[in-house]
Amino acid sequence: MKVARWWALAGSAGLVVSMGAMAGPASAAARPAPAPQRTALRGSLTPAVERSRPAGSVAATSSVSFDLVLSLRNASGAQAFVRAVSTPGSAAFHKYLSDAQWESRFGPTRAEVTRAESWLRSEGLKVGSVPTDRLFVTASGSARSVERAFGVTLGYYMVTATR
Questions:
Q1: Is residue 34 part of a domain?
Q2: What is the pLDDT of residues 124-160, one digit of tens each?
Q3: What φ, ψ does residue 4 adopt, rounded to 5°?
Q4: CA of residue 139 relative to chain centroid, distance
Q5: Phi-psi region for residue 56, left (φ > 0), alpha (ψ -120 to 50) or beta?
Q6: Distinct helix (H) and strand (E) counts, the chain
């Protein structure tokens, strides 16, 4: 399995954004109530949130580029496959999937990508490229558009290093 697949699996566990579920801002005090059709994703905050303090706001007209990470299809099955292919003694040990097999078995569908692209455009954002594995959609727009689309307030933060 290619390194990109490992990254995708790990990334999907930590940062999964799917249609109908958008992450809220960092702190509970600053978190507005989710809009009626939005749900704050459990576990989507990073540990750095606890060590950060506000350091300024982002101008509404600032340009923001980001990747909308899509959910793996059958994420638990993907995790089980990764465990099996990596475990000595397993019947699947070192029996890797080709890129095409991985994508057809676990990757987001073309329909999911199309829905994500349509939603981004409907929010006034510019849609960029989509890699062949369809794990994310690149997008950009003004800070105001991103804030409105995701129900967040963008800001700059100072993060204290840990020892």
A1: no
A2: 999 999 998 899 999 999 999 999 999 989 999 888 8
A3: -60, -35
A4: 12
A5: left
A6: 5, 5
Summarised one tens digit per residue, pLDDT across range 59-91 is 999 999 999 999 888 888 889 989 999 999 888
Residue 7 lies in a domain: yes
Rounded distance between C-alpha atoms, residue 30 and residue 54, angstroms: 11
Q: The domain containing residue 116 runs over which residues?
A: 3-17+44-159
- By percentage, how much of the chain surpasses pLDDT 70? 69
In a domain, 31, yes or no: no
Handedness of CA 123, 125, 131, 136 (dihedral sign): negative
Residue 32 reports pLDDT greater than 80 = no
pTM of the model: 0.64
Quote the number of domains for the chain. Answer: 1
